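Target chain:
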Amino acid sequence: MNGIVTSNLVKRYGTFEALKSVSLSIEEGDLYCLLGPNGAGKSTLIRILTGLMKPTSGEVNVAGLDMKRDLKKIREKVGLVSERVILYDRLTPVENLLFFASMLRIERRVALKKIESLLDKVDMIEWKDKPIRVFSTGMKQRVNFVRALLHEPSILFMDEPTLGLDPHSTRTIRNMVRELNESGRTVVLTTHIMSEAENIAKSVGIMNKGKLITTGKLEDIRASLNRDRLIITVKGRPEVPIESIDGYMSASRLDGVVKIDFRPGISMESVLPRILQMKLKVIDVDHIKPSLEDVFVELTGEKSQS
């Protein structure tokens, strides 16, 4: 069953087209990472899917509901964790969360029980009565994460949720995302960091310049490049720079041994004669399957952050 479906989604700001006919299908219970460089249209798409922004044209269906007819019902079913933290500095986590729970019409006794349980899961229970203003960015984002879960949404959207966070906060949020997804919730998160997606995603979509250029299961996206990367480890002192070998991408050196990394698609047969001509001894050969980074660079022509 599809949890989220868009058809020919377009968003224009004057003459600028932020989304260009985006058609997307995300299965119920998926953990979907939306990837792309800054300015690709990821955040615009998330704002439309959560009902915070209207598209210029196109259709949106979330949790089996039509965005145009059932916006109020959709908002009851979705949660959003944005890069921007929505909390009051002078209040404590409990005070903040009780305020947001009241806006969601959650009874105070029920809300307190949920708040304490969720703060414990994100390692913030010991800070529950301290003012938000003394918290680090990562601590604030963990409380912000709890805010989005108070009404137990069936679909959780996360827009760059770990951007600029410390390793502990990043790991805590990542583990909670996995736990939520394993319990059956659909999770959609945006990032421009490939390692984030490779660590957590079941499915991915890659956006660039307002277009969704590919979407599918993580392993299928990796396999779509259909070209292994060749790494050859050699020993010796070449008479000419190894950078002159066709397909050379990078190299690392340690104790007289050089590990040469070639571009995807370069074969052993095409580089071995040149290596032997340089009087280098081949010690090891590795064939590495394409990474998400390789696919991203191939499709967008841009390097991502790792």
Notes: The longest strand covers residues 2-13. The mean pLDDT is 91. The first helix runs from residue 42 to 49. The CA atoms of residues 132 and 276 lie 63 Å apart.
